[in-house]
Amino acid sequence: MRQTIAFQATGFDLQPVQVEVAEGAEPPEEGSLPVALMAFQGGPSLVVTMLIGTTDAENMMNAFTEAEPMRAQLPPEAQNWEPEPTVLPGGMFWAVTPEVVGMSVTPPQATPDGIVPHWTLAFDDADGSQVQMAVSEAMCVNVVRGLAQVAHGELVMPDEDGAGPPEDDEG
């Protein structure tokens, strides 16, 4: 069944993952092996997670690059848009994990129906469903930075004690 889920993203996280290919199994194409888990929260009741490889990250960054020239200068009251969390009835929680086969990015813009003050990220699932997220300017910057880390192989697994890589003290 095809569905569209739309919400305002209130949080974003990106974590490295380690995937082992079973012995004797055909290895996936270079760049398609998942190396990161992207998570978008829509408040306390909604989370969307997706595994991405380096090729996925590059393609997603390209979608942002293609959308940037279409970005409109918005009036001041629309420039500071902040998302509102999705709150479901007590005990309800949605965890959505699309099998992403495509992504589109729409920048903030003025339309005939009014001003759209946020970025819209739309992830297409293999079954034809779609997850649409309204994303603030600040979160959008964090998403692109995270995608760049994945695409360039800079997102690393934390040490066993939970710490990340050692800090570089050089200027």
Describe this structure in words.
Helices cover 19% and strands 31% of the residues. The protein is α+β, with helices and mostly antiparallel strands. It has one domain: Secreted effector protein pipB2 fold (2-Layer Sandwich), CATH 3.30.2450. The strands form 3 sheets. A 4-stranded mixed β-sheet has the order 1-10-9-6. Strands 2-3-4-5 form a 4-stranded mixed β-sheet. A hairpin with a 4-residue loop joins strand 3 and strand 4. It is globular and about 55 Å long. The C terminus is likely disordered.
Q: What are the key terms here?
A:
Secreted effector protein pipB2 fold; single chain; 3 helices; 19% helix; alpha+beta
Number of strands: 10
Q: How large a portion of the residues is in β-strands, by DSSP E?
A: 25-35%
Number of domains: 1
Helix content: 10-25%
| Global shape | globular
Give the SSE string.
EEEEHHEEEEEEH
Question: How does the major sheet shape up?
Answer: 4 strands, mixed
Summed over residues and divided by their number, the pLDDT gives a mean of 86
First-last Cα distance? 54 Å
Number of helical stretches of at least 4 residues: 3
* Unreliable residue stretches: 165-171
* Rg for CA atoms: 18 Å
- Strand line-up in the sheet with most strands: 1-10-9-6
Identify the CATH architecture. Answer: 2-Layer Sandwich
- The CATH class turns out to be Alpha Beta
Give a quick precis of the structure:
The protein has 171 residues and is α+β, with helices and mostly antiparallel strands. Helices cover 19% and strands 31% of the residues. It has a single domain (4-20, 27-151), classed as 2-Layer Sandwich (Secreted effector protein pipB2 fold), CATH 3.30.2450.
